[in-house]
Specification:
The structure is a single chain. With 303 residues, the protein is mostly helical. The protein folds into 2 domains: 3-89 and 105-193, Potassium Channel Kv1.1, Chain A (2-Layer Sandwich); 267-303, no CATH class. The chain is 59% helix and 7% strand. The chain is built from 12 helices and 5 strands. It has a 3-stranded mixed β-sheet. Strands 4-5 form a two-stranded antiparallel sheet. Strand 1 (23-27) and strand 2 form a beta hairpin. Helix 5 packs across helix 7, helix 7 packs antiparallel against helix 8 and helix 9 (154-165) runs antiparallel to helix 10 (169-185). It is rod-shaped, with a radius of gyration of 41 Å. Residues 21-88 form the BTB domain.
Length: 303
Amino acid sequence: MGSSTLGTAKYGHLFNCEEYSDLTLVCQAREFLVHKVVVCTQSPFMAAAVRGPFQEATLGIIQVEDFEVETVRRMVEFLYTGDYDAPPHPSEAIEEEAITVQPLALRNETNDKILRHVRVAVIADYYNIKDLSSLACTKVKSSISAPNENHPSPQALADAVKEASTLCDDNNQDLQDTITTFAAANLNILLQADDLNPLFNDFGVEIIKKLMQKCETLETQLKDTTKGLRAIVESQKQALAALNRARVQEARTSASVTKCLAMLREQSRCRNGQCGALFECYVEGNGHYPVYTLRCAKCGCRH
């Protein structure tokens, strides 16, 4: 049984329960009272910290630095329940309200989700919680591929790429590939971010913008060329259809002429009994593509 499944089965009722807590995670003055049997069995990093000759073992406190409070909360939630929430926690909502208001198109919930999941993947990588890392990667892919989601906001996308770049390559190649592919597909949005350091410096950004402009020009040319080729193909289809119709008509005409010639050879008089006129000539055809000649039926003279 995997650790995430084990957490869901055995420890879910202990989430947010301070009773019998024997370890404290501290992040930006926020304390998370947890249980060693829950966190240390899923995080080799924390297990080593509380076993070794460190302050964490003596005081029963682990200082969680370089991570946001809500990222730590999501990690703790996973350790107890096997899952974590993606929507912003009330404390995050308060922080976001304090940020300068951006246009609606630039404040996209979807990309905020991607950034939150990437941050969870980063903390999972740091504390070596493999099941959490896998879950975060799955949630990133789900958010990216959701059919009803809008384009990401520039800065949130830039932050997600920055966060993903800090991950250990060996353990998170799948997530990094997902993020870099997504960023490349939305490069025009990424370049609108206010802060792209350390991803690109100003000179690098200008080079990429020029490359984007070149790509856009080539894309326009490709569309025009494709449109022209489609017109040519359509014209050829129409010409081929006309040729086929002409061939059908030619075949019908040829069959009709052949039938008339056969009748002319077989009939020496008009079949109208009141007429009975003699047919004093016949039509001769020569060669694969016959040259028809009118001859006298009596002497064979060509006319």
